[in-house]
Design a protein that fits this description.
Strand order of the largest sheet: 1-2-3
Distance between the termini: 53 Å
Shape: extended
Number of helices: 6
Helix content: 40-55%
Order of helices and strands: HHHHHEHEE
Structural class: alpha+beta
Length: 155
């Protein structure tokens, strides 16, 4: 049986506020103590620029490589090289959309949905606008009554 109490005990924020419920949000997510400990260990023992020839840099590279390998294993990626880490989802999405926006032209249309978090919608809308393309999307108030909205490049 799934032990909810054991899981809650792993998160300091849940221990501090036992009746609280934290949901993943754009401002961050609660993390278990083992993550806090791992980050503290990294910062105190091997925090360095990547690709250097000195010991802390090489230690840092090994930690990062193991993290890529673990994530590749978790999501069943073909290789660790396919895993990308970034500051947060919003920053990664902005970088990704800015790269793809270089291929957009006037007349192109980017489809988005307001059912998604704004951190995934706004970067696409802005990328389309800045490239002279348009963005369009949809949202359902209920399954039988969808509505559509359009944002032109000039808006």
């Amino acid at each position: 049986m799934f032990d909810v109490s054991f899981c809650r005990e792993q998160f300091p924020a849940l221990r501090a506020r036992p009746r609280a419920i934290f949901l993943d949000g754009p401002g961050g997510t609660q993390v278990p103590q083992r993550v806090i400990d791992a980050v503290a260990h990294y910062y105190t023992h091997c925090n360095a620029n990547h690709g250097g020839l000195f010991a802390t840099s090489q230690d840092s590279d090994r930690v990062l490589q193991r993290a890529h390998e673990a994530m590749a294993d978790l999501v069943n990626a073909p290789s660790a090289e396919e895993i990308v880490f970034g500051n947060n989802m919003t920053s990664l999405t902005f970088h990704f959309t800015r790269s793809l926006a270089r291929t957009l032209r006037p007349g192109d249309e980017v489809m988005v949905t307001r059912l998604d978090h704004d951190a995934n919608v706004s970067p696409w809308v802005l990328a389309a606008r800045d490239a002279g393309a348009t963005s369009a999307g949809s949202m359902c108030r209920r399954p039988s009554a969808p509505w559509t909205w359009r944002v032109s490049a000039g808006n």
